[in-house]
Fold this protein.
Amino acid sequence: MAATQLLELAGARTPAEACVTADLSEARDRELVQRIGRGDEEAFRGLFGRYAPTAMALARRVARQPFLAEEIVQEAFLAVWRNPSGYDQQRGSVRAWLMGMVHHRAVDAVRREESQRRRAEESMVSDPVVSPDPADDVADRIDLPEERKAVRAALEALPDEQRQVIELMYFGGLSQSTISEQLGLPLGTVKSRTLLGMRRLRGAIGGGDR
Amino acid sequence: MMRDHTRIEELLAVRSIGGLDPSDEAELEREMASHGPDCEECRRLRTEYEETAGRLAFALEPVAVREGFADETFERAFGRSAEPAGERPGAPAHRRPWLRPLVGVAAAIVLFAGGVLVGTAVTGEQPSGKTVLTLQSETEPGTLAAAFTPGSSGLYMVGTGLPTLPEGKVYELWLFTGDTPTSAMCATPSAEGSVFGFADKSLEGVGLLAVTVESADCPSAPTTQPIFSAEVTA
């Protein structure tokens, strides 16, 4: 697919208006989802190769059981294959949609198996980074590191107390009331820290400043 | 004049990262309903917080997927014609229709065999062709059973009354083909000592099932001695 077509899919009126790397990447993702809607197996393989390692990292971090994480990731991708029209371009990027599905499933699993879950503060052993998608699209090689860098920078820029509650909630799968209990903080404090932190993150990575 | 969206924003922000309690979930629904389906600000806030939350995943280092995992996923996605009529394509294998009665059968055998497990494995073939095999232990309390269909893929592990494990430890089920173990699944016992797990594995050629206590990252080879085992005779 030509770059101009990709930019059209990305919603960019002119190349100058686009943040080229991010938009090309997002346009490619949207193209993959469109092709999946037509039953294109290679497109599904492409999307899987591109995002399965991140999805697995998220599922393992939240669910903390490798086999459960595999089930969560597989279910999320199968949901994409079965119902690609579930993606609504008006509601954000493909990658955020996909990771949202993984995260929701992981949190549900954690809540179902609350008694089996280890403490949220426990750090996860990092697995080696892989590059499973040999696609020739230049976006593959340059945008995910940039994405990771941007998200990490946004998180690191948060005050510690805001980052703590957000990480416990998102990566630990804990509800705000559970965090309140675990940290010995008033629930209102947890709520305000979460909101302040999420507002900052939204401005940095969620399109809230666009 | 724009309505106040402070409370909706607070709730959307928390929901986007999975932290809402059920009572807050209900409140968010009420608030959103009160603003109506055409509330642009509500839609914008929801979209931007969901986008933010989805992108947080990229703060993590990617994790290598297990060898074969991609192929298994593609097989389940593309192999729809092989699915029985009426079964949802791609449905998780552990939700297959025969699971519920099988779990019941496993539980029944576990209850029946409880306390007298040292000795010969209890193998029960069910009318549907499913087999339930209890694993034996001379040292550990509780009972553990594996359920499968000979010749087919799909293996369940069901246990009750098992010892809880130290933090960071799991039960890992191994399939021995000759002297070679292959990891089938890991499972953490609940506070009540119950475990349940599924692996899309076949017992073709497997002569022995064994369970060890391993670290939560599920090593690819056993690092401790088996505490439960059973010969596969079915």
